[in-house]
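User: Teach me something about this protein's shape.
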Amino acid sequence: MLKRTSTYEWQLAPTGKMRVPVTLFADETTIAQLTADVANRAQWNALQQAAHVACLPGIAQSSLALPDVHPGYGFPIGGVGAFDLDTGVVVVGGVGFDINCGVRLLATDLDRSTVEPHLVELADALFNTVPAGLGSQGSLRLKPAEIDRVLVEGAESVVRRGYGIEEDLAFIEEGGRMRGADPGTVSDLAKQRQFRQVGTLGSGNHYLEVQAVDRILDAEAATAYGLFERQIVVSIHTGSRALGHQIGQDYLKEMAEATKVHGIEIPEQELACAPIDSLAGRRYLAAVACGANCAFANRQAIAHLVRQAFASVKGVSRAMLRTVYDIGHNNAKVERHTVAGVDRELLVHRKGSTRAFGPQREESPAAYRHVGHPILVGGTMGTASYVLRGTDTGMRKAFGSGIHGAGRAMSRKKAAKKHWGEAVIEELGTSGILVRAHSLRSVAEEAPAAYKDVEAVVGAAVGSGINAPVARLMPLAVIKG
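Assistant: First, the predicted structure itself:
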């Protein structure tokens, strides 16, 4: 039974084979939906999934569910699980199939009034410059050895090829390059699927959005990030494309076998896992680092193309398009956290959750260290997005984790049945939001009504104290796959 511990915090005490409690940061509406799913024995049940994560060996402190939580594959989306390096496991479902899917925020020096007269031309330029859609291919044609370089070097590899500038790297999580990557742990099939996909947006919930800063909510942090009201910014949301998906498919099979070999009891097959320091565990983490680096390189290449598109539009070409930050939300990485007063190294899985480190963490860019690094929260095509920051409370209660978006309220299949892509585009157009899309079905699947209320989700994250608000962004033009 769920026990309310504060306005936006709830706890499910350990029962059965749970090793730790489940802690949920959510509003009453989300809790009501989660408990209704349990009562109705829904096949996809995020609360039950969070409880299953709490059963895994070596899990520390609590299995977490953040305000944007919804069902995933084994591990809930919006879920966080941290594991002891000696006794814990690495879980494929805790990362998912779009490894290091994330957001890059680019900031211009332009006021909204400067760009709006050229918005149609800008949207068209972005649509024609940035490859998007299912199976889309980019201008980078990489050979096998070059793919391996991308998997090891991440964003650095494409900067060296002229995609972006060296200064970008200081404002990417991990400097745009996760250590420990080993291309030998990635299948030839995964690499082949990526030869033409670096620098492509993809489909599904991936997007590129021209936005305006609607409101500054924390002057000190906004100044540190270089954000101001009415400023034009661009959000890029995409990940490791086909390579990351293939890594997930490959290792779900390998880890299922490892689960049996190591005699690990799991509540459901989608939580296939292996001890962190086992051969299977080390191989998977090395492959995850490769996928993460591919995603960093992908967003770096797209940022370069966005700059080219802006430069081609008369009236907006003086925009500098500085990288504010680039951060992922499907990952597993070793971090140092304090648990029960003891400093420990833990393997933190964040599935549909982003790192949200508070002030004074050395992992943050030096220019942001006094306020904590940005958290980039996507809304929907028709609603606000947010820039948040990490907090000391979030470090203590949530392993320095934050929300990544509004969170789905409706499956893609149901959304496609309920909404028509043309109607969604027309409705958004009447609100002053331009949409350029390669697939009308994708627009229908991503209709704003298919998502939770981003204001309520952000309100719960802020109300619980785990994240703090910095700026509110509103969409002007959306590019979809």
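Now, about its shape. The chain has a mean pLDDT of 94. The chain is about 35% helix and 25% strand. If you'd like, I can walk through any region in more detail.
User: That's plenty for now, thanks!
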